[in-house]
Amino acid sequence: MREKILTFIEKNSRIDIKELAIVLGVDEAAVKKELAAMEQENIICGYHTLINWDKVEVEKVTALIEVRVTPQRGMGFDKVAERIYNYPEVNSVYLISGSYDLMVTLEGRTLREVSQFVSDKLSALEYVLSTKTNFILKKYKDHGTIMAEPAKDERMLMTP
Amino acid sequence: MRNPLSKTIVTIEPSGIRKFFDIVSEMKDAISLGVGEPDFDTPWHIRDEGIYSLEKGRTFYTSNAGLKELKVEIAAYLKRHYDLTYDFNHEILVTVGGSEAIDIAMRAMLDPGDEVLIPQPSYVSYLPCAVLANGTPVVIELKEENEFRLTKEELEAAITPRTKLLVLPFPNNPTGAIMERKDLEAIAEVIKAHDLYVLSDEIYSALTYQEDHVSIASLPGMWERTIVINGFSKSHAMTGWRLGYACGPRIVLEQMLKIHQFAIMCAPTTSQYAAVDALRCGDEDVKQMREEYNGRRRYLLHRFREMGLQCFEPYGAFYVFPCIKEFGMTSEDFATELLNAERVAVVPGTAFGGCGEGFLRISYAYSLENLKEALDRMERFITKLRENK
Question: ipTM, 2 decimals?
Answer without folding.
Answer: 0.83
